User: Fold these one by one.
Assistant:
Number 1:
Amino acid sequence: MPVLGLGTWMLTSHTRDLVANALRLGYRMIDTSGDYHTQSGIGIALTELAPPRDEIFITSKVETDQDAYQSTCRNLEELGLDYLDLVLIHEAPDKGVGEDLWRGLIRARDEGKARDIGVCSYKIAQLQELVDLTGEVPAVHQVEWSPFGHSLDMLSFCAAHEIQLQAYSPLTRGKRLEDERLLRIAAKYEKTPAQLILRWNLQHGVVPIPKAGRADHQQENLEIFDFDIEAIDMATLDGLNEQFSALEKLEYL
Ligand SMILES: NC(=O)c1ccc[n+]([C@@H]2O[C@H](COP(=O)([O-])OP(=O)(O)OC[C@H]3O[C@@H](n4cnc5c(N)ncnc54)[C@H](OP(=O)(O)O)[C@@H]3O)[C@@H](O)[C@H]2O)c1
C-alpha cells in the first residue's frame, strides 16, 4: 500500500479532472466509497490516464445496511475495475460487529474482487470480537486520526495484530490547522501545518488519506518526504491529543 493517499469525500465536482491531476502529480492511492458519488469520475480518470493497474491502489467501502459482496460488485462496476485493492466496512454496525458483512467481504476477496479487506472506526473490543468470530484479521483499520484526536492504545493494538492504520480526516477538515502549537513546530521545519500533520502520521506508521481538491493542496501534501520530525516534537504533537473529532466524535473510542 502507498504510504499516502488522496481522499475523495466531497470531491464531487470535477472529480475526473481533480483525480487526474492527483495521478499526474504522483498520487498512487485513491480512497472512495459507494456513497461518495466519486467512483465514476475516478474510473474515467483511471481509464484516460491508464496508469499500470498494479501501480495504483484503489480503496472503496460498503455500508452496514448493504450486502457487502453485492455492494463490492457494484463499486467495481462504477469504477470500471476488475478488482479493488482494498474494501472496507464503512463503520461499525450499531449492533454486533458485522459478521455477515465481513463474511461477504471475505467472499469478495476469495473470488479476487478485492485484494484486501478491512474495517473503519471499530473499537478495540469490536476488532477483537470480529477476529475471534471469523479468524480473519482486517488488513486495514481506517479511523479518524490527527494530533488532536487519536489513540495510542489503538495504534499499539493494530501494530500487535499487524493491522495497518489509515488516518481519515487527517487534516481535521481544516478546523485545527491554525493551532498555535502546530504553527510553531511547522515553522521550525519550514513546512505547513498540513505537511507537519501528514509527516507525523508517517512517522507513526499510519497512512494518511487527506482530501484535497485544490491543486496546490494536492502538491503540498505530497511534499512530506524531505524532512524528519524530531522525537521531542513528535511527543509534543502526540500531546495535543484531546480526542477532537471533526466529525462529532471519535467512533473507535
Ligand atoms: N472511513 C470513513 O468513515 C471516512 C470518514 C471521513 C473521511 N474519510 C476519507 O478520508 C478522506 C479525508 O478526510 P476528510 O475529507 O474528511 O478531511 P481532511 O482530509 O482532514 O480535510 C480536507 C480539507 O482540508 C483541505 N486541505 C487539503 N490539503 C490542505 C492543505 N495542504 N492546507 C490546507 N488545507 C488543506 C481541503 O481543502 P481543498 O479540498 O479545498 O483542497 C479540505 O477542505 C475523505 O476524503 C475520505 O476519503 C473516510
Number 2:
Amino acid sequence: MSKNPDTLEKTRHSLAHLLAAAVLELYPGTKRAIGPAIENGFYYDFEFGKPISDADLPKIEEKMREILPSWGSFEREEVSAPKARELFKNEPYKLDLIDEFENSGEKITTYSSCPTSTSYKLQATSCFVDLCAGGHVEKADEINPHAFTLTKIAGAYWRGSEENPMLTRIYGFAFRTKDDLEKHLKMLEEAEKRDHRKLGKELDLFIFSELVGAGLPLFTPRGTLMRNLLDDYVWSLRKKAGYEQVDIPHLTKKDLYEKSGHWQKFGTELFRITTREGHELAMKPMNCPHHTQIFKRKNHSYREMPQRYTSTTKVYRDEQTGELSGLTRVRAITQDDAHVFCRFAQVKEEIGKIWNIVDEFYAKTAGFSLQVRLSFHDPEKPDAYLGSAEVWKRAEGELRMIVSEKGVSATEALGEAAFYGPKIDFIAHDSLGREWQVATIQLDMNLPERFDLFCINEKGEEERIVMLHAAIMGSIERFMANLIEHYAGAFPFWLSPVQVAVLPVGESHEEYAQEILSKLKDAGIRAEMRAGETLGKRIRAVKIEKIPYFLVLGDKEKEAKQVMVESRDKGQLGAERIEDLLQKLSVQNAEKR
Ligand SMILES: [Zn+2]
Ligand SMILES: [Zn+2]
C-alpha cells in the first residue's frame, strides 16, 4: 500500500478484506496471509484446508456481495503484540507478521468491519477483524457492488520465498463503475486475441524448445528478419548522431562486476560459471562495464569527447521459472545498448540527441504516444544505490532541468532509478491504451567514478567524465512482444517479413507471375509467389498471414501487362502497371510509416 492511497486504491484494498471475510464464511478454518490493493484490483493469499479452483470463484464473489451491505465502517484499533497474538492465535501467517512488526517497532493495528444491522443472518453479532496497517474506504457502502469481480487463482509462496509454504492467491479486479470494469474486461479480451505468444506462433516469428530451455526464445527466419529491420533502423538513426559500433564477449571475469557493483547488486540473478582452472566468470547481465574498458584503452583528450559506443548484444539473467512469460520476460535478452562517455557540460546536448532518436523511432514510426517519467532514487533507502547523496542530487537536478527546458511534462517517480543513476523513462501507450516502459536514458556519475574514467581537459588535467546509458528498444524481445500486440500482427509495410504475395490465377499465368516476382525482388521488396491450391484458399492464407499486399495475375493482367492489387488495409486497389506499384512501395519502405 502506498503512503497516500487514492479512493480507488482504498476501495481495492477494502475488497481484499471483504474477500477474506467471504472465504472464512465459506471455508471455516482457512488461514489468512495478506491482501493488498494492486493495479486494477486486489488479491488475498490464503492457506485452504482443501484446494479450491477457479470454479469456486463465483460462489465466493456472491458471498462478498451478500456480506457487503451488512458492513459499516472500518474501525481501527491499536493493539499490543500479546493481544494481537491472542486475536490471531490460529493464524500462523498473521503471527509471523506480528513478530515482524514487534521486532521492527512498528505499531500493530487491527481493522474491524462490523454488521450495521441484525438482518444479516450469519454473522449478525460478530465483526470481521483483520491485522492491517490501514488504507480503507471510510464506509463500506462506498464500494460499488457491481464494479468488482474475482478473476483467477494462482499459487504464491509466503513472503515470495520458495522455502515457505505455497499459498493460494485469489485475484480480483475492481473499478469505480460497472462501466469501467466492463471496459477493462473487454480490453483484456482483445489483448488475449493479440497475445504475442499466440500470434508469434501463427505468424511463424519465434518458438521455444524444451531442449533449449525456458526463457530462451529461438527466432525463425521471419522473426530474425524483423529483429534485424528494427535494429538496422535504430543503428541508422544512431549513426547520424555520431555513434560507433563496438563488440564485446558475453562472458567476463568476476573482477569486472565486483568493481562495477553488479556482483553484489545482481546477486542470484547472475549466471555464474567456474572454469576448469577454477576461475569464476559470469554471463554478462549488462554491457556497461565492458564498454567502460573500451573507453579506458587510452587517454582521451577533451577534443575526442564524447565517445559514443553501441552494441546490439545479448545479456543473461537467471529469472525464476515462474516469472518467465513469452518474450516479455526471458533469460537471454538482446539489448540495442549504447553508452555515451562525455563531459558533464555535454550531457544536455547528448541527451537531446538520444531523445530525438526516441521520438523518431517510437512516436513517428511506430505510432506510440509517449509519456516521460523521471525515475529518481529513494532518499530513504541509500543502501540500494551506489554513490553519495551529493552526486545523486546533481544528476537528478540536471535531468529535471533538461526535461523542463524541453517543455515536456513529466512525472517524478521516487525509487525507480537504476542503482547507479537516475533515468528519463519513456512510457508508450499502445493501441489498446496499455502502458509499456520502452526507451530509457540514464545519467550515471557512479560507474565513471568506480572505473576511474576521465578525459584530459583544456588545462591538461584529468577531468572526471559521466556516462549515459541509452538503449532505444531496450530488450528487443520485449519490444517485439509489444509491437506484435500493438499491431495485432498486422505490421506496417516496412516491417512485414513478407510484403507482397504474388498469386497467379492458374498454371498458365505462372510464367508472368515469375516475371513480376523478379521485378519486385530486384526493387528490394520482400515478395513470395503462392501457387498450387485454389485461388480462394491462397487468398485466405495470405490474409491470415496479414501480408500487406497481394497481386492477382490472370489473363487480363497478363494481356495488359498489369497487376491486380489488393491491400490488407485498404481493400481492392484495382489494376496498375508494376512500375507504378514499385514506386509507391519503395516510398513506403523508405518512409517507415
Ligand atoms: Zn486493511
Ligand atoms: Zn548501461
